[in-house]
Amino acid sequence: MPCLDITTNVNLHDGGVDTDSMFSELTEAVSQIVGIPKNFVMILVKGSVAITFGGNKEPAALAEIVSMGEISSPVKRKLISTVGSILYDKLSIPNTRFVLKVFDGRKANPKM
Q: Which of 8, 38, 67, 80 is the most exposed place for a label (fewest CB within 10 A)?
């Protein structure tokens, strides 16, 4: 079950962000890229968090994805590109102000 956890300094509750379509697009993207059915994909988005990137408070995001299984380098690159594009379209976060950390949950807990 992949879990994508996004933290951003963008206000998600000001009425200008369509969070429903953002969640749908992120779920679909992770499902397709990782090769897991959508009903096993979890997305968390926390907004209005105090974040600076490069010394300023312009829109930025830090994301982490944990998956129960190895995520290859091509899949990592596709996740970074696709999630970054969605965050740019929905939250106006440039790719240069977005970081995605990828974790294999089985390596963290080999009994899984």
A: 38
Q: Are 71 and 38 in contact (CB under 8 A)?
A: no
Helices 19-34, 73-91: axis angle to 10 degrees equals 170
Specify the pTM.
Answer: 0.90
Structural fold of domain 3-108: Macrophage Migration Inhibitory Factor (3.30.429)
Name 109's bridge partners: none
The ranges assigned to domains in the chain are 3-108
Amino acid identity of residue 84, one-letter, is: G
pLDDT tens digits along 55-107? 999 999 999 999 877 788 899 999 999 999 999 999 999 999 999 999 876 66
Question: Using CB atoms within 10 A of its CB, is residue 47 exposed (0-12), middle (13-18) or buried (19+)?
Answer: middle
